[in-house]
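Table S4 entry, Cysteine-rich small domain-containing protein.
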Amino acid sequence: MTYDEWFIQQGNLHANVMKKLEDKSVDEVIEYFRFDNMVKNEPDFCPLYKDNKKCHDMEDLNCYLCACPNFRFKTEGFEKTEEGRTLFSVCNIKSRDGSQYIGDDYIHQNCSGCIVPHREKYIKKHFNRSWFEVMKDVRS
């Protein structure tokens, strides 16, 4: 599955959950997306849920922004490095907790050490009932 395909699929999964929460307040929606609740009530939302595994090692993981609005990707790549690798994804805020996966001919952003979009304060600041609207700048 390409990142484009995953992105569309995840946005649709998010929209389906949001349909169930139309009558809920912003705080109630954010609370619903807490990891423990999602594992229990939305087991198909994330493949990691079946193993009760988190994508980020943090106590209060919130899955509302399962993809980060600061992540940028381009299917054809942003640029080629001097070493001939294609840079496919980057962190728009250059998080100090991010890193890169570097392969023989590619570079991808590694967000596993960053918890910025999974904090409820951050989610509330950037909240929109449309996940695609929050994520509108991710795909270049």
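The mean pLDDT is 93.
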